[in-house]
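Hello Y.,

Per our agreement to keep a running log of every chain we model this quarter, I'm adding this entry. I've kept the format consistent with earlier entries: sequence first, then predicted structure.
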Amino acid sequence: MSLAEEYYYREITIGRVPLGSSYKLFKHSEFFKKGDIMKLTFIDVTGKPELVEWVQNKETGGKAAIFRMYALEMLGTPLKALMPLADTMLYLNPTIEGDENSRIFDEKYANQLSNFPATKFDLAILLEQLQLKDEVYVVCNYTHPTVGPIVDSLSKYIQQKYTFQGIYLVNDLEDIDEFAASEFDTDEGYEAFVKDIEWMTSQRDTVEDVLKK
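Predicted structure for the entry above:
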């Protein structure tokens, strides 16, 4: 499957494009305003059937978008391009310790999130769902030794770039707070959020135009 075909396939699997139909994105101001209720959560369901069922129920209910990243369970849409590049992963080598390596990893991963088109696209896909759904869940596997640091670094990037506060981590049912919410601290952060989604939609529109030819 080509990159273009994969992007279009994701639109179908997320439930945004009925098969055989055309897709047109509404302007952001038409369906989302700063201050609307939303929540971003990373959830580890590995070996926890009760959490798998809870996530499935969320997705079936239609009010939550489900993604997966380093997950063993085939839940939601994969975010493969959010995985750090090989040279960045070197700084998560478990035999190397120290805050300096953590700092360098954060810097390299932030650069990838900002400048590597496929990674930036996948992140914007995730962000866009915060506009379209009440909740977004990213299914992870925390038994993998590098997933914790990667999710932590990704969360810091989202918090810093978009001044987005309230990113939650769920390891068991007791961690779930149905009333928790995420929000933007500043207008500048929200504007950066919208700008990145608009960049992604422009790229997606180009891909769809190519597929129609």
